[in-house]
Each structure stands twice: as structure tokens, then as C-alpha cells.
Amino acid sequence: MKKRAIILCLLAVFSLACAWCAAEEAAPLRFQIDGTQIVNLWEDGEGTAHVFLPSFADDRNTAALLEDGAEASIGGVPLVSGMSCAGFEGGKEYELVCGRDPSRKIVFHSSASVAALFVTTGADEMLRVNADKGYETSAAVSLYNADGALVYSRPSGCRIGGRGNSTWLKDKKPYNLKLERAEELLGMGAAKKWSLLANTFDETNLRNKVILDFAGEIGPYQGFAPECAFVELYLNGDYQGLYLMCQSVKDTVSAFLDPSDEDGYEIELMMPGKLDQGADAVSLNPAMAAEIKAPSDCTDEQKARIQDLVTAVSEWIGTDGDEHPGIRPNIESWARKMLIEIVFENYDSPNASQYFWGSLRDGTVFAGPCWDYDLSMGLYYIHWSTPHAIMAFKDWNLGAEVSWYHGAWGKPAIRDRVLALYRDETHTKLLDLVERRIPAEAGVIAAAALSDRIRWPEYRRHCESFSEAVTELTEFMRERIRFLDALWIDGREYHVVTMRLPNTRMLHCFVPDGERCGELPEPQEVSLPGEGMEGVTAWYREDNNEVFDPAAKVTEDLALYAILPGEGAP
Fold this sequence. Notes:
six-stranded mixed beta sheet; single chain; alpha+beta; 9 helices; 4 domains
């Protein structure tokens, strides 16, 4: 039997809120694989303890460990510390008795085909990491491939800390793992810093992996997309679920940006509210900033030069011409990056995680590397999605400021290259991706994804199963390809319906000429919690301030807006 697991038959004094407790805390029953790695029980709060074992563990190489003086039994079989778990079947419920605690159920879960990453820190150190994104601690690290081969092991010298913005606010935390030196892991290129993405928003866990792999294949330069691989993460023996282990953007950039070049730069576009305190950044406009990622120790002179370059790019995207004095946008990288953002319907493409790099010496501006695709392929923050939109064309401040991709689409050199790439190079690859590669990738992680759903049920509520979530993703992409085929290859006439919300966000969809806007959501359906839009069902037309009739046929581009309750109709 294969199995896999996490956290403990916790002592009664612990609550579920202490699920981050360190492995050093006393636990009456734990499990050990091949005499090395410890895996703790995880209590689900409903009377069942779960044992999530990595893909290479089975009943023969897994042993039960008991604290001195502790007594326990599984399925009526008394346990002796060090005894084999042979005979306990994966997926079957057994009665678990630990000392004088009330009996409850225990289930062993089997994983398959996914690597396992064990990170061990000092007592209570993970509590501190999870409480403070800026805190990091030393760690021992062991990485096993899916077959159980130990591919990396360091008893010291590594460090782990928090990362992310919106995902950091979730209980399933994303992390950065820093090694002693750059290492090639799981067939990926060498990196010293690795990002462990939790994929909290994505029930399939596939979006980041699928898109980064695809981008890497069509990239215009080495490092256009970080390499990545799935792992199951154990922190101090506690199973944390399925993660995507990626080369950090910083390590990826090292493939094309010389850190010793004082003229080399890299920036990341984001909303100012997402900047970390003390981050070095320059302004694009009131709604967007460019954080300076390189040089790492930016001088005032370099910062001023980067500000000039960012201003020049903003001016360039607001004009009709392909050129601008002082900057040299790399057309091929802009076209291929824009293609990725559009094809996969990246909700954040105008707002966050957009990297650009080049040389201040000659004003070059390359787009990339690719990053952050958990909100893509029909997955947004809001409970509405459509394959008939181009989120990369959302502008800032309700359209008062033009986003870089939207402005760049007006450049014939970029737009024509995107269309040619879609038609001649990526269309066939996309069909293969949807029909063959996504199902194959889903098959690889299916068992691990099931354990992840059990471990984190609060993040896996939209779809009843992993397979249903994968089907939803692939159906979205099939319709997405049909839409882009009609728009970009067949030349069908579409009109854009733009929806503006009071919080300055915009949404939009494309509607074929003469058809009804049947998928238009109500404002209350696309507002965020706390915005006060509950009960708001009407959109108003900007051209005449009349209520929009979603049953009316669309024959022109339309701009709609919503009104907060109590403000009254126009």
C-alpha cells in the first residue's frame, strides 16, 4: 500500500488552530518512512485523523512511532514503536485509540507520481514564519523524487520564509526556500532561491504549471519562464499539501541579466497597495507603480534613469507610432508575452506580476519573464468568468490610464506579430495542450490533489471533485480557443461591452455583432466583499444613463456603469 500524511494525534491541550506546531512538540503517535522522515497525523476536526504519505511510502517501509509510555492501537491492533504498518490499507477507515483519548477514525492516503519536500526547522520557528512574511529561519531540507530517490539533502544552511500577496493571507501559505548554493532539482535548471506556490485559488493546481511550461516552450529568450515541478510539502513532519516548486524570478532573470552591469534593470508592474514596505519603486500613474527588482542596490541616479524609462514607455504606449525616442521595445518579447496573457486570460495581466527588463544604456525594453497565473483560464477573484474577454486590455482608473498591454496592442508591429504567432505557431499547440497535455498533467497529480483537497477543504468548494475542476478548466479553454479563432482568424465582428464598478475596477466581454449579451453578470455578482454592492442588479449605459437591457441586441461598443445603493438612479 502507498500512503502519505500530516500532523498528529495532538495532545488534548492543542486546538486545530495550532496546526502549525513544530515537530518537536510531543505527539503520542507519528510515522516514519525508511527510518528517516517523520510524518505526523492531521486531525480534520470531524473525528478523523489522516495520514498523508508521500508517493514512495508504502505499508512495508512505513513504521509507527510511539512516545515513551504512550499506548495506541489501529483497527484493534496494538502498536509497538517501530513496528511496520504492513497490512493497513490506503483509503480504508480504521478505529484509532490513543491512550485514554476517545476513539476516532484514522485513514491512510496514498499518493503517486509527485516528489516530496521535507523541511525541518527549530521549535516554533514555523509559527513565526507563518505570522510574519518578512521573517525567515534556517532549515534542514530533504527532497525526494516520486520514486523515492533522495535528490537533495542538507542538514543545515538552507532558509525558509514567506512570500506572496493575496495568497499570503490564506492559511495554506506560499514560501520561499533558499539553498546554500544554486542547485539543479527535479530536472530543472539551477537556482538558489525556489518559490513554493500554494495555488490556493486554483482547485486544479494546474494553472501555473501548465502556463509556465507552455511559455517556456514558445519563449523568445532563455529564462522567459521559470521551470517548475510539483512537490508535496512537509513542514516539521506536518503535511501542507500539493505545491508548485519554481525557480524564483530572480534566478530566472540571471539567465539574461548580468548583475554586475550597472545599466541593467528589471521592474515589476503592480498596484501601489501591493508594494512591500520600503520597496524601491517608481510611479507610472496614480494607479500603478513599477517596483525596481534590479539593480538590487539602486542608486538615486539609477532610480531617476529608470523613472525616465518608465515614463517614456508610458508615453510610447499612448501614441500611435511604433517608435519612441530613447527606448527600444523588443517587439518579439512583447508579442509573445502578450500572447500568453491573452490566450490564457490572465485576470491580473494589467495589474500585477508583469516584469520588464533591459539596459538603461541603450533603452531596450524586453517583456517577461512570465509569472503568476493562478487567476487565469476562467478563474477570477469574482464569481463570474467568460472566455469572451481580453483581460490584458483592462485599463487603470476606469480607463483614465491606459495599461501597457492595451496600449501596445495599438502598435501594428506588435499586434500583427501576435496574430501571426497565434495563427502559425501556437494554435496547434493550444489544441494539443487542451486535449492531451492538461489531462495528462492532471493524471500525474490526481492522487496528490485528492489529499490536498482533504487537507484544505475550505479552498476546494467550488467543484465537487478534482476531475470536475479539470473538466471545467478544459471546457473554458476549448471555448476560449473558439472565440480567439473567430476573432483573430475568421475576422468575425465583435463589440466590447465594458462594465465599470465604483471601486475603479473594470470588466468587459466581447459580443458578436447583432447578438444579445446573454452572459452579462449583475453588478452584485462581480463586486468584492465589503464594497456594498449587495442587491445591485442594474447596469446603466454611459451614453444615455438609461438602464441597460441585457436582452437587447448589441450593435456597437457599449460602456456600462453601476451605482452604489443609496446614490439613486441618474
